[in-house]
């Protein structure tokens, strides 16, 4: 799964640390998500969408490999 | 959702403070076979095997309770160390926790399997004694190493 957390973060001009506080997770989690090493839960995805004021589907996109 | 069977974060430190001294003392007394007479007591037992090989349930046995005390301290403190929350216990940390636990179970039983094939009779008793504690120990080492790596080697972008 691809995500545009980094892009959305840039739009809002906030750091990974800021986003971590807003989303109530650790910095490591934000970092891991941006690097594609961790796929967040539905709750965290909804929190991120809420923070960025976009739809969840605007942040996360399915890839072909997600259907395997 | 919120139920995760973990202790609050502060218990991790308490766990370490009890675990380290009792593990060191436990190891030393085990190796030196140290059993002070002052700790010999008649204690209730659920299952008894006499020297001649007689086995029966329920009774009183004379036992040195030093190893029981240390065993309990080590087990309880390592449970606290293993299963106290991290400062920021979020879903990603929980995932690492689960992976480390699976890894520790595999690793522990791999060692037990090899030991049971190549270590015999009374020598195997040593394996069993250590095996009481190693599953938690392997988990603690693996999990804390992963968390350390995460915090230390991750390159943050601002």
* SSE arrangement of chain B, N to C: HEEHHH
- Please report the first level of CATH classification, the CATH class of chain A: Mainly Alpha
The radius of gyration computed from the alpha-carbon positions of chain A, rounded to a whole number of angstroms, is 11 Å
- Tally of separate helices of chain A: 5
Which quaternary structure do these chains form?
heterodimer
Percent range of helical residues of chain B: 55-70%
Please give the largest β-sheet of chain A.
Answer: 2 strands, antiparallel
Low-pLDDT windows of residues of chain A: none
Shape of chain A: globular
SS-based class of chain A: mainly alpha
Q: What letter string, H or E per element, gives the SSE order of chain A?
A: EHHHHHE
Strand order of the largest sheet of chain B: 1-2
| Main β-sheet, spatial strand arrangement of chain A | 1-2
Q: What sort of overall outline of chain B do the alpha carbons produce when their principal axes are compared? A: elongated
Highlighted features:
heterodimer; A: 68 residues; mainly alpha; 434 Repressor (Amino-terminal Domain); two-stranded antiparallel ribbon; 2 strands; 57% helix; 6% strand; B: 158 residues; alpha+beta; two-stranded antiparallel sheet; 65% helix
Task: Write up this protein.
The complex is a heterodimer of chains A (68) and B (158). Chain A has a single domain, classed as Orthogonal Bundle (434 Repressor (Amino-terminal Domain)), CATH 1.10.260.40. Chain A has five helices and two strands. Chain A has a two-stranded antiparallel ribbon with strand order 1-2. In chain A, α2 crosses α3. In chain B, β1 and β2 form a beta hairpin. Chain B has two domains: 85 residues, no CATH class; 72 residues. Chain B has a two-stranded antiparallel sheet. Chain B has four helices and two strands. Chain B is elongated. Chain B is an alpha+beta fold. The chains are: A mainly alpha (68), B alpha+beta (158). At the A-B interface, α3 of A face α3 of B.
């Amino acid at each position: 799964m691809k995500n545009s957390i980094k892009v959305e973060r840039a739009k809002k001009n906030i750091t990974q640390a800021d986003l971590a506080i807003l989303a109530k997770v650790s910095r490591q989690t934000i970092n891991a998500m941006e690097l594609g090493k961790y796929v967040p839960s539905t709750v965290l995805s909804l929190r991120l969408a809420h923070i960025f004021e976009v739809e969840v589907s605007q942040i996360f996109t399915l890839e072909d490999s997600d259907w395997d | 959702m919120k139920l995760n069977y973990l202790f609050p974060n502060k218990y991790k430190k308490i766990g370490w403070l009890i675990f380290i001294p009792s593990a060191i003392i436990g190891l030393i007394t085990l190796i030196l076979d140290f059993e002070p007479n002052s700790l010999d007591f008649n204690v209730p037992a659920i299952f008894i095997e006499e020297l001649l090989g007689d086995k029966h349930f329920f009774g009183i046995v004379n036992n040195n309770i030093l190893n029981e005390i240390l065993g309990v301290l080590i087990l309880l403190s390592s449970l606290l160390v293993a299963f106290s929350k991290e400062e920021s216990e979020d879903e990603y940390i929980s995932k690492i926790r689960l992976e480390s636990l699976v890894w520790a179970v595999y690793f522990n039983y791999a060692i037990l399997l090899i030991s049971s094939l190549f270590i015999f009779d009374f020598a195997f008793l040593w394996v069993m004694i250590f095996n009481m504690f190693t599953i938690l120990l392997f988990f603690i080492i693996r999990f804390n190493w992963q968390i350390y790596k995460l915090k230390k080697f991750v390159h943050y972008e601002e």
